[in-house]
């Protein structure tokens, strides 16, 4: 049995990374739903892809941009995401088709 002190020493808080942190994204990766709570206690839902055991959040604006690209290039296999901004209010994403 583990003590609370031992558990605390090894504890790593769960985090969700952002899709823009990936060098490239394969179009065939499965997407999953997640639910979180903001600092005000409000529940929100978001989408993630899982790469090498890590959750990467997929903003809805990325999904919308990807839809436009796939309408023009349905054979797209990989893309990248560039992120500009640092806060929720000023962050913009650009989807870059790769192949």
Strand fraction equals: 35-45%
Low-pLDDT ranges: none
Count of the domains: 1
**Major β-sheet profile:** 4 strands, mixed
Q: Distance N terminus to C terminus?
A: 51 Å
Helicity level: 10-25%
- Helix-and-strand structural type: alpha+beta
Global Rg: 17 Å
**Number of DSSP helices?**
2
**If you average the pLDDT, what whole number results?**
93
Any descriptors?
four-stranded mixed β-sheet, 38% strand, three-stranded antiparallel β-sheet, 20% helix, alpha+beta
What does this protein structure show overall?
The chain starts with a helix and ends with a strand. The chain is elongated. Helix content is 20%, strand content 38%. It has a 4-stranded mixed sheet. A 3-stranded antiparallel sheet has the order 2-6-7. It has helices at 4-10, 60-72; strands at 17-18, 25-26, 31-37, 43-51, 54-58, 78-84, 92-97. It has one domain (13-97). It has 2 helices and 7 strands. The protein has 99 residues and is α+β, with helices and mostly antiparallel strands. The longest helix is centred in the middle third of the chain and has 13 residues, at 60-72.
């Amino acid at each position: 049995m583990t003590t609370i002190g031992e558990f605390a020493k090894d504890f790593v808080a769960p985090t969700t990374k952002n899709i823009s942190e990936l060098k490239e994204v394969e179009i065939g990766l499965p997407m999953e739903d997640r639910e979180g709570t903001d600092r005000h206690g409000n529940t929100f839902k978001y989408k993630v892809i899982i790469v090498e055991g890590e959750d990467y959040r997929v903003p809805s604006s990325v999904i919308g941009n990807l839809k436009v690209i796939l309408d023009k290039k349905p054979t797209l296999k990989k893309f990248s995401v560039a992120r500009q901004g640092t806060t929720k209010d000023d962050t913009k994403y650009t989807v870059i088709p790769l192949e």
